[in-house]
Design brief:
Layout: H1 3-16, E1 20-26, E2 36-42, H2 45-58, E3 66-70, E4 75-79, E5 83-89, H3 90-96, H4 98-101, E6 106-108
Parallel strand pairs: 2-5
Antiparallel strand pairs: 1-2, 1-6, 3-4, 4-5
Helix pairs in contact: 1-2
Length: about 110
């Protein structure tokens, strides 16, 4: 499965659970960590867990490198080798500010996918 296909599945999973402000950033030209980062936030711990569970269900057949964080800690990371999904509480998203850190990447309009 191509990276962009994984991105589409993950974004659909996040949209299904009403993730807020989903951003897809293509970082393949600036890092070897992944080809795409997906960043979103949720309104509470239960939603963060539901967002994470939804992505894991949609990408069940895709090998996962690792998972980090907890819903009650305000952030979760799902690493699928060429895509990394970042799920934050609103507060944690502002603190980590990944959009600023990876501003040299290309933001992909999810409406065009």
């Amino acid at each position: 499965m191509e990276a962009i296909d994984k991105v589409k599945l993950a974004v659909a999973a996040l949209e299904d659970r009403k993730a807020r402000d989903i951003k897809v950033i293509k970082v393949s030209g600036i890092t070897t960590l992944a080809d795409y980062f997906i960043i979103c936030d949720g309104s509470n711990e239960n939603q963060l867990k539901a967002l994470c569970d939804s992505v894991e269900e949609k990408l069940l057949e895709v090998p996962m490198k690792h998972r980090e964080g907890t819903a009650n800690g305000g952030w979760l990371l799902l690493d699928y080798y060429d895509i990394i999904v970042h799920i934050f509480s609103e507060e944690s998203r502002g603190f980590y500010d990944l959009e600023r850190i990876w501003k040299d990447g290309t933001v992909i309009d999810i409406g065009d996918m």
